Amino acid sequence: MEQFQLVLQSAWAALPTLLAATRLTLGFALAAMLLGLPLGLLVALARLYAPRPLAALAGLYVSFIRGTPLLVQIFVIYYGLPSVGLVLTPVQGGVLALTLNAGAYLSETIRAAIQSVPRGQREAAYSLGLSPAQTMQAVILPQAARVALPSLGNTLIGLVKDTSLVSVITVVELLRSAQLVIARTFEPFGPYLAAALVYWAISSVLELVQRRLETRLSRSG
Predict the structure, then answer these.
(1) Could you tell me the CATH number of the domain that includes residue 171?
(2) 106: CB partners within 8 A, 6+ apart
C-alpha cells in the first residue's frame, strides 16, 4: 500500500512538467495533420487521375511509408538527410517525418472516400455544365469528407500517440519530459503512468469531439 502511494505521489509530482510538454505534443500532432491533409489529398488525386508515371510515383511513396516503421523514417530524415546537405532541427525533422507518414495514410483514406461517391453524382454534375475541377470541389469532396471523417479522426488520435517517437531525436515532448523527470527522481513508474494517463485523456477528448462531429454531420445529411 505504501509503495502504491509513493507511485501516485511521484505521478502527481511529475504532472505539471508533463502538462507543460503536452503543448508541444499537441503542436506536433496538429502540424502533421494540417500539413498531411493537403499532401494526402494531392497524393490521392494523383493516384486516381494523374498520368500513369505520376500515379506510380505516388503509389511508391504510399507503399514505402506504409511499409516502413515511423521510427525508421524519423532516423532517415533526421540523421540521414544531413549526409546529403539538408540539416534539420529536431522539431523540423519530427514534423517532417510525421507529416510524410500522415500524408501517406491520409491519402488512402481520401482515395477510398472519393471512390465511395456514386458515379452518378459526377455524371449529374457534368450534365449541369460543371467542369471536372468544379465537380470535384463542389460535389465529390464534400461527400467524401463525410465518409472520411471517422478515419481522419482516428489518424489525428494516432498522431498524438506517434509524437512519442520524436523523443528519440531529443524533442522534449510528453514522453521525453517523463524521461527527464525519471532521470532526476530515479522513480520510473509514476512519471510513465502519468504520461500514459495524459495520452489517454487527450485521446478520449479527441474521440468525443469526433463522435459529436459525426453526429452533427449525420443529422445535417
Answers:
(1) 1.10.3720.10
(2) 36, 37, 39, 40, 41, 44, 152, 155
